[in-house]
Amino acid sequence: MRRELSLPYHDEDLIQIRPGDEVILSGVLYVGRDQVHKRLYEAVVKGESLPFSFQGNAIYYMGPSPAPDGFVLGAAGPTTSMRMDPFSPLLADHGLKVLVGKGPRKKEVVEAVGRNGGLYLQAYGGCGALYSSRILSAETVAYPELGPEALLKLTIRDFPVFCMIDTRGEEYIR
Amino acid sequence: MDAESRICEALVAAIRRLPDKVERLIHQAAENETHPSGRLVLNAVEENIRVSGRTGLPLCQDTGMFWCLASVGRDSGVSIARIEDAVMKGAGRAAVDGYYRRSVVSDPVYSRKNTGTNLPPVMVYENIDGDDVILRFLLKGFGSENCSGVRMLNPTAGADGVVNAVRSIVSEAGGKPCPPIFIGVGVGGTMDRAAVLSKKAFFQNDDEELSARIRDEVNTLGIGPGGLGGDITCLDVSVLEEPTHIAGLPVAVTINCWADRMAEIVFRKGEI
Lengths: 174, 272
Prior knowledge:
The complex is a heterodimer of chains A (174) and B (272).
Chain A: E1 2-7, H1 11-15, E2 22-31, H2 34-46, E3 58-60, H3 88-93, E4 98-101, H4 107-116, E5 119-123, H5 128-132, E6 135-142, E7 151-165
Parallel strand pairs in A: 1-2, 2-3, 3-4, 4-5
Antiparallel strand pairs in A: 2-7, 5-7, 6-7
Chain B: H1 3-14, H2 20-32, H3 36-55, E1 65-73, H4 80-97, E2 122-128, E3 133-140, H5 142-145, E4 149-153, H6 158-173, E5 181-189, H7 191-200, H8 208-218, E6 234-244, E7 249-256, E8 262-267
Parallel strand pairs in B: 1-2, 5-6
Antiparallel strand pairs in B: 1-3, 3-8, 4-7, 5-7
């Protein structure tokens, strides 16, 4: 089934999306990968303030290539999700529960997504030019010193992904 | 055009334009895949190739680490030092001119500090007959490279053993290396030599029969495009074989994602 999801989301928008659905995202999408996850995790553990609100917002695991003149970003496809697995359950429990990346997740992440009524969405691996063409704007929100790994806020339109884990914690089975 | 410029030009193009054979195999897969989720992925891949062609953006943000095999003609009179210098300068310029992501860190264990240049490349040298110098590059993304591996088989394991070793490595990789994948297999030598052969195999195939067997076996796994399921997990396999020890059968497997990016530059009569 093909579904649309507008971001930031309302919890009731997520429930209709099931494993195996093609989901078309539009709106605001935050970007963070390895180092951002480590820092967000540490901020939550220490009770420090967060660089963006987890409520209603989704995060995309990505590190772009440099933007040529006239482009918002370079290629901007997903990176391997599994490397975020140590951090994702705690962050999901604090509201960051709609996750966009590629590849399988550990059991702890499946359970955390289900327990919090979130989603894990897979973007199509290697499709960096395609995703870049669906990004309308990008700004650095935090950690600029991380270079291509900085925390970004994107505006996206017609961003195609695939539901791997739904709000019930049910997984896509091929 | 000087050697550095030729290397630079080839590497700027390589992250944007796939070899014709690779594009043809992807297109055939998109037509033949029967699994609906797998087809969805292949359609996105084909759309991505079109967008890259139209915009000039790299196919993938992981523009890879430079891996270079320099085949040096014995009669070329060219030194390894000259080749290294040309590759460092040509690849360094390509990283800037081609908008490569800087994906290389200087210290693998501790500081993980980015070199900021996408250098150094991984260099391998060999001698060949004649007076040509041939440079063959892979642009090695690490979503796929992290799934590559080596198995040291029993010397009596034979072709079945090789097929099973590749099957096991690909099965463990699942959807992680961005399937449909390309597989290079190096058999023989020592552990490290087999690994080099598994990369050289992307440019040459010694054993079409074993390659076809491996491809068909891997495609029974059902991993499919993007790991979402389907008939087409692997687009092509290539095998290189070399002498080894009586007590062993090293098998190395390099996995490349569907964006099987490479470049080959030939310098005739040692003119590099």
